[in-house]
Amino acid sequence: MRPLQPPEPARSAEWRRRFGEEARAERPDLSALCLLVGAQADGELTEAGMDAAQIELDRLAGELPFRPGGPRSWATALSEHLGGGLGFRGTPGDYQRLESSLLDKVLRRRRGLPILLSVVWMEVARRAGAPVYGVALPGHFVVGFGPPEQQVLVDPFVGGRVLTGTDAELLVAGATGSPLDPSMLTPADPLDVVLRILNNIRAWSAARPERSDVALWAVDLALLLPSHPARLRYERAQLLVQRGDFLTGATELDAYAEIVAAVDEPAAARVRSQAHAARAMLN
């Protein structure tokens, strides 16, 4: 597959504008936000391509043979359709591919990270009328069906296998070494899902310094979310310096230092020192 390259600046700015608007909508559309992430990653993803991805989600929902009743019936039906019939699942190698974090590519390849496969499950199930939501277990995203007292969990990464309570406990213990807490089973907010996807993309690019362009647009999108970690501003400034934009990076480091100074003056002083060093690189 060809290397993905971001769109040209004007188109990228338009996608960012639309992403920010959608993120601040009364009811943000998860699939639309994920596709706008994909458009920032791939300059060849057009408006028509995003529409085609939405149509594919509609088609997949329309192929469900019936409308099950309870949560377990819904979980089984989606798993048989998407995992068993169509082969949506993940492999260890998917963690090494940027495409595994992009909804349009996951729909085409039928491979991806747990959270993107979960987005497919959720969007198809939602369109079909299922009581569905994401569950952000530490280290491994899954899908939930039904109210808490009847909750059924499935793991799209392994084809939609229905999880027992012990399965969920083992997933959490394997990721954190700690026991499963009931609070971990609550429905994930769509914007938290998007932030987690962007965090995955940042982690992918952090292991590939030559793709700091990917890290930068992922941080830019995360900063457009209504709620985001303040430290992302520091990360953005560092990326700008790394990419040779020393003056802008230094200015953003100074701005971040002002925020930090209110709670940790020694840390703010270290950031100001980094800003000074960045400006010195201009000489």
TrEMBL record:
It comes from the Bacteria. Signal peptide: none annotated. Residues 54-199 form the Protein SirB1 N-terminal domain. InterPro entries: SirB1_N. Belongs to the UPF0162 family. This is Transglutaminase-like domain-containing protein. It comes from Streptomyces tauricus. The lineage of its organism: Bacteria, Bacillati, Actinomycetota, Actinomycetes, Kitasatosporales.
